[in-house]
Amino acid sequence: MTKEERLKKRHRSEKRFKLYGVASIFVALLFVLILVQNIFSKGSSAFMKTAINVEVFFDPELLELQNGASSDDILQADFFDITIETLLKAYPAKNLDEENELIDLFSTDAEIEIRKAFLENNNLVGKKINLEITASDDIDQLHKGNYPRDLPEDRRRISNFQLNIYDNLVESKKIVKNFNNYFFKNGDSRNPELAGIGGALVGSFYSILICLLLSFPVAVLASIYLEEFAPKNKITDFIEININNLAAVPSIVYGLLALQILLATIQLPRSTPLVAGITLALMTLPRIIIPCRASLKAVPPSIREGALAVGASKFQSVFHHVVPLALPGTLSGTIIGLAQALGETAPLILIGMVAFVVDIPSTPIDPSSSLPVQVYLWSESAERGFVEKTSATIMMLLSFLIVMNFIAVYLRQKFEKRWN
Amino acid sequence: MNKLINVMLGILLALSFVTTSHSRDQIRIVGSSTVYPYATVVAEKFGKAGKFKTPIIESTGTGGGMKLFCAGVGANHPDVTNASRAIKPKEKALCEKNGVSEIIEIIVGNDGISLAHSNSAPDANFTKEQLWRALAANVDVDGKLVENPYKNWNDINSSLPNKKIEILVAPPTSGTRDAWNSLVMVKGCSDKAKSLFKAADKNAKKECAKMREDGYAVEAGENDTLIVQKLTSNPNAYGFFGYSYLVANKDKVKAAAVNGVRPSLEGIQNYSYPIARPLFFYVKKAHVGVIPGIQEFLDEFTSKKAMSNRGYLAKIGLVPLASDKYKVTRTAALDLKTISIK
After folding, report:
1. 256-315 in B: which are within 8 Å (CB) of A?
2. Which of A362, B156, B170, B338 could tie B174 with a disulfide, CB 3.0–4.6 Å?
3. Over the stretch A155-189, which tens digit does the pLDDT of each residue have?
4. Which residues in chain B are contacts of A147 at CB distance < 8 A?
């Protein structure tokens, strides 16, 4: 081989390597793109809900309320008859079966929505108003194009009669798409059109708050002590190795630990954000200590020596000079640790968070679910409407994670000093 | 920094005070994932009625639920456990040991395990023995026990299609698999095989229920929605799950007939469909009157509006009890009749 040939060969192999690099980045991006596209195409429709415009007549004969009734009386009153009257007026039904099919087009919460309209304006007795009532899951999915209509009738959940009503309503522009406020406001429900992530959001918030309160101070103090004060000997080496080991322990193990200690021995209430927060704190602790120590280590010794040289104590040099400089790295490490905790499901299964919780928790000791658990629960549900709800919840979870990671990167870039 | 630490310590202290004064004012339910969809619907209606808080329902599987249920009496233990099979003697013993001596048994309704496949595939019909032969680890061929040799359906019987055997099965921990084993694998096991197992000094029931592990029976996990997806994309595959999934997905999958019968409401109700089973839940009597709302919850669950043929549970796929059995269940619920746990 001549000199030129060898040179060419080396250039070729360099080119090849670059090509492999670009290809692998492309493949990775492609996977992310497919995932995101898949989730978005399935989930984005969940942020809208289908509603049917109906005329409600607050018939004094059917309603045992006077104009100006107090809200207590309204909550006690029976709106069932009015609801049925209203829904039946939407389309002429010939017999009981058809009437039932007609009523099934509306959400089971129709009565509650009519009551709410009356609560907002208690002078409606004897008057007619137009109200948009949430449609049932079947109609919702049909209207969004997620449910096929060109199948034989016995293979559809929607009967021919119901399809006729639907087409008629679409033609008369009675079917509308609204922003799905239930998705953010409501807790879990077995009716997909009413199910929301409100409870899961609050549960996740409390869990992460407790996790932060417990893990951040402990992790920061532990890493400051280990890095700045502790003597370097076999014991601290042993501790360091074990912190690294703990960070690699599968999260389900922490769930088992919590089950034994927090639930069985201390008898804290099951399925609560308190227990979830403590469990996640145990899991997050080593994952925060490691970046904390790394950022302390990155502060150059000249800073410490300078402080000591002008007469500061060890404590003063650490807390007045080293810790403030290490803070951006510490905070971003904490946020990334919390982001991991936010997406964690496995330990929560064992402490009973995988539960059907309708009421939105008001304190950290009320039973609750969390965002990843809600994804898991809905992905197992048979009803078609939960497919989009599952993807939409994943979208919410992903956007929280992206925001948290963005804050972490921002803190580091903005405040971190470089020492070179 | 010091202020921050003080604030955090303060919040933690406050939290620990709150937790010490904790008692429960809502029903807690654990147990079977098959009963979960029905129990949650009842719980939601019960909560919306406004008198009591909505019960909390965990889906732990039948066995896991029994363990939690039988762990003791008191606010830290669940009040109700759902089960896709009757309570076992072992579990009764555990309950008794831990002081849970009075249990109310409620039969919720029936479930038919449906053997489903894609709508695009031709209709199919199997006998229980054919299904056993397709799935068992060891079968009898020419009077001898051998490892399952069948690769295509027509190897089992020439009347069956010439297609590869491919069945998605539920994992061993699920109640659906338990029921499939006892209703199909054990019942479909040939007499010859049973006697051969016995001759080899083995437990015939256990051996009959053993599934092959050579790739023809594919373990598919607890997620039934995923099974539906897999069946849709592969018209040759079969999978089994509860009747409610068949109802919810009838635009995608259909049921194969077993012994010539397709699953239907009536067929499951009178057990003429051969893979039907009752579903249960169990209530701790000691908690009635202590945890508010248990009696009212029982009333709601067993009411006609929930459990009858036109009830709201039937709409989501629960097969209601026949009327004579319904009366028994209803009285058991209203009178809080306990079962013997000896």
Report:
1. none
2. B170
3. 788 888 999 999 999 999 899 999 999 999 999 99
4. 251
The phi and psi torsions of B157 (rounded to 5 degrees) equal -150, 130
Tokens 């004897």 sit at which residue? A126
Q: Do B24 and A217 touch (CB under 8 A)?
A: no
Report the residue from B57, B119, B224 with minimal CB separation from A380. B224
Which of A75, A155, A271 lies nearest to residue B58, judging by beta carbons? A271
Report H helices in A225-322: 234-248, 251-258, 273-298, 301-309, 314-316
DSSP 8-state class, residue B54: P
**Residue A381: its chain B contacts at CB < 8 A?**
37, 225
CATH code linked to domain B114-274: 3.40.190.10
Q: Is B64 on the interface with A (CB under 8 A)?
A: no
Output Rg (C-alpha) for chain A, integer angstroms: 30
CATH says B24-111+277-339 is which class? alpha beta
CB contact under 8 A, A377 and B59: yes
Quick: pLDDT tens for B63-81: 889 999 999 998 889 999 9
Q: Same topology for domains B24-111+277-339 and B114-274, yes or no?
A: yes
What are the extents of the domains in chain B? 24-111+277-339, 114-274
Q: Is B14 on the interface with A (CB under 8 A)?
A: no
Report the residue from B1, B8, B56 with minimal CB separation from A213: B8
> pTM to 2 decimals?
0.82
What are the angstrom distances between the C-alpha of B258 and each of B109, B120, B130, B211? Answer: 21, 19, 10, 19
| pLDDT tens-digit series, residues A248-261 | 999 999 999 999 99
A198-415 CATH, one of 1.10.3720.10, 3.40.50.2000, 1.10.3630.10, 3.40.190.10: 1.10.3720.10
d(CA A326, CA A317): 13
